[in-house]
Structure formats: C-alpha cells, structure tokens
User: Which sequence fits this backbone?
C-alpha cells in the first residue's frame, strides 16, 4: 500500500476542557483530582489523529503505536488545555509527531507520538484474524 503524503511541518491545535472523568482519581492512575497522564496522552493522540485524517481518503485512518511524553505540571478540573501536534517526519506509513499540551502559558506535557496509516478494512480483517487465532488456542 502506498501511503498518502502528509505535509511535514503541518501543525494542528485542539482545546480540551478538563472534567472529572479526566482526573487521575477517576480513572485510577492516581489519587488526585487533576488531569491524569493517560487523559493528557488521549488529548495528544486525538489531536495528531485529526491532523493526519485531514489528508487521508475515507478508507484510511491512523493507529497510534508509540507515545513518549513527559507530564510536567498539574491541571485542575474546569480548566482548558490546548494541545498541539506537529508532523515532524513521515516514512512511508509511519508518522512522527511532536506533541505539546499547555494550560494558559504553562507547558504541562510534551514529547513524541507515532502513528501508522492503515486501510480501515484491512486493519479490521487483521483484528478479526487475531481474535480467531487466539480463540482457537
């Protein structure tokens, strides 16, 4: 499969409101009521996905395969976080993004996120095959 080209250097930003369901206490990754690291990563992946999806045909999407981020500062419930994803490299189907989350002027997290371009139906078929193989033992 030949992967569509996505412009390297393109940036996409998205805002997220931190709610109770995003807290470390709620999801079980900690005991405090601030933005959890898994939720911050979700915001980063979602932003990178949207950037890539703008350039892909309907039958294609991306799947996350790697996340390497630092979570440096807390954000309380009710505050808005802005996440930016910048495509820094494309190698065939592999996309590498720099991701950053900020609250006002404070960096709360940053790092690298990788995604792969996949054909939706071929990927779904692969998942079905893996399920069948695992059920058979």
Assistant:
């Amino acid at each position: 499969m030949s992967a569509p080209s996505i412009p390297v250097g393109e940036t996409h930003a998205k805002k997220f409101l931190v709610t109770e369901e995003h807290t470390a206490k709620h999801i079980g990754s900690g005991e405090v009521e601030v933005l959890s690291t898994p939720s911050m990563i979700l915001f980063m992946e979602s932003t990178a996905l949207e950037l890539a999806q703008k350039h892909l045909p309907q039958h294609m999407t991306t799947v996350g395969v790697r996340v390497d981020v630092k979570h440096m500062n807390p954000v309380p419930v009710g505050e808005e976080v802005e996440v930016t994803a910048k495509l820094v490299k494309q190698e065939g189907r592999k996309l590498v993004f720099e991701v950053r989350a900020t609250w006002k002027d404070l960096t709360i997290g940053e790092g690298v996120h990788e995604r792969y371009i996949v054909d939706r139906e071929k990927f779904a078929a692969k998942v079905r095959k893996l399920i069948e193989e695992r059920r058979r033992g």
In short: Residues 11-136 form a domain with the Thiol Ester Dehydrase; Chain A fold (CATH 3.10.129.10). Helices lie at 24-27, 37-53, 120-136.
